Amino acid sequence: MSFCLPKPVIALAPMAGVSDLAFREICREFGANFAVTEMISAKALMYQDKKTRTLLASSRGDAPLFIQLFGSDPVCMAEAAAILASDKTIHCAGLDINMGCPMPKIANSGDGSALLSKPGLAAQVAQSVVQAAEPCGLRISVKIRLCNERDPLTTAQLACTLSDTGIAFLTVHGRTRPQMYSGSSDADAIAEVRQAVPKTIPVIANGDVRTAQDAADLLRQTGCDGVMVGRGAYGNPWLFREIHALLSGEAPPEKPTLAEKCEVFLRQLHRAGEVKGEMVACLEARRHFCWYLKGERNMKPFRERIVMIKTAAEAAEIAREIVLSQENAAL
Ligand SMILES: Cc1cc2nc3c(=O)[nH]c(=O)nc-3n(C[C@H](O)[C@H](O)[C@H](O)COP(=O)(O)O)c2cc1C
Predict the structure, then answer these.
(1) How far apart are CA 72 and CA 81, in angstroms?
(2) pLDDT tops 80 at residue 1
(3) What is the 3-state secondary structure (H, E, C) of 84-153?
(4) Which of 12, 204, 233, 251 could form a disulfide with 35 if both were Cys (CB 3.0 to 4.6 A apart)?
(5) Does ligand 1 come within 6 angstroms of the Cβ of 209?
(6) Please, which pLDDT band fits residue 280 given cuts at 50, 70 and 90?
(7) Under DSSP, is residue 75 helix (H, G, I), strand (E, B) or coil?
(8) What kind and span of H or E run contains 229?
(9) 331 CA distance to ligand 1 middle (Å)
(10) Which atom of ligand 1 is nearest to the CA of 171?
(11) Which residues are designated catalytic?
């Protein structure tokens, strides 16, 4: 299967607990032209963990998609890659390797961002996944964060080392591990990576894209081949079409109305229910619903009810009342 990255890439970031199939499909509807699944444990995949199967849910419309794996054992990562590559029920164009997760649960086991301080092992992991999956037609990418002074290589050196393993492209989140998700993302450091890595390897810049202007600035500052949007997409899939419009010199699209936000949220909830069952979908949808309402006035009483939602019918009723309350306020 041949795969070409869109130009420029305007991607939804992998976010555990957020970037599920339902949210990815909604973001694509509004212009996300690339997406990566929530991270999936290579070990769990080998043990056929049931929850992991849900994380692998994909659809023909959810393309191009990369499945993200985490792990630091080259053999286990290769086996997991081979499992995914041979599963014809999964629609994916490639596999992404997580070398950025700073969460103690992951990094303390040597996975995720812990690989930044072991460049030799990081390269072995990338190479073994490339060798296992590329012959089956899957492309491989790696997502890293910035290295810091305690790491043996600079981020640019690490990126060059990884580029030599046969990966198709690289995503760089402009924060270091100690920063976790706070402070600001360093666009200049991402630009250094873009400069250092061969031009044949696309580099996607990630960090702090909250507006279309942020995306345009990040592309310009870094010279990268695309941007990846994380938290800026929370409750705001419309950001992707705003980015497209700005980059192509079109007038900014209309902002969504509150009624549209509710309608899109309910569709996302419905789809999530199909994939993971109504109960789980509703629990996870509580925060999505609050994110969709961010910036809207007089939502406090609704939020108090949203955080208790157990059924899709309850969510629909709250959405109906929200829209009605706004119509009444406008009278
Ligand atoms: C809730 C949450 C979950 C995340 N899960 C993942 C993950 O599974 N894999 C990954 O590579 N990065 C993960 N990230 C990091 C994001 O992909 C992204 O690199 C980071 O949020 C920076 O982008 P932003 O500033 O646009 O949010 C996660 C971030 C958040 C906030």
Answers:
(1) 13
(2) no
(3) HHHCCCCCCCEEEEEECCCCHHHHCCCCHHHHHHCHHHHHHHHHHHHHHHHHHCCEEEEEEEECCCCCCC
(4) 12
(5) yes
(6) very high
(7) helix
(8) strand 226-229
(9) 42
(10) 19
(11) 101
Q: Identify the residue whose C-alpha is closest to ligand 1 atom 1.
A: 15
Give ranges for CATH 1.10.1200 in the chain: 258-330
Phi, psi dihedrals of residue 171, rounded to the nearest 5°: -115, 135
CATH superfamily for domain 9-247: Aldolase class I (3.20.20.70)
The per-residue pLDDT for range 222-257, each reduced to its tens digit, is 999 999 999 999 999 999 999 999 999 999 999 999
106 lines ligand 1 (CB under 6 A): no
Tokens standing for 240? 């992707």
Minimum-distance ligand 1 atom for the alpha carbon of 208: 25
For ligand 1, the distance from its centroid to the CA atom of residue 230, given in whole angstroms, is 6
pTM for this prediction:
0.97
The CATH number that domain 258-330 falls under is 1.10.1200
Ligand 1 close to Cβ of residue 229 (< 6 A): yes
